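Lab notes, practical 5.
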Amino acid sequence: MRTLTLPEPIAKYFASEHNTEALAQCFKADAILKDDGHTYEGVDTITAFLAAASAKYHATSVPFDLQHSDGLHIVLAKVSGNFPGSPANLSYRFSLDRGLIDSLEINA
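Output from the prediction step:
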């Protein structure tokens, strides 16, 4: 089995998925997150959304592949939780800047 080595801010994002304070430290202050047709701007808005989603769905993400395209880090992860269609493989498209997440787009 291949060991997946993620860039540090991305590894920290997945390790912190249920810890709002730790998640906040992964993002730039003016970061953008796109998920399920919605756009969240700014670290406070992003972490509030992620905290609400964590409380509602109790999802756990397990990254299984890393690709690179046009300067983006694309992580494929198996996500299991209390939501229709669980488990699902999702794509996380990360843009990094100075060791922090600048933008993240999550797609099915």
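Observations recorded by the TA: The first strand starts at residue 27 and ends at 35. The chain has a mean pLDDT of 95.
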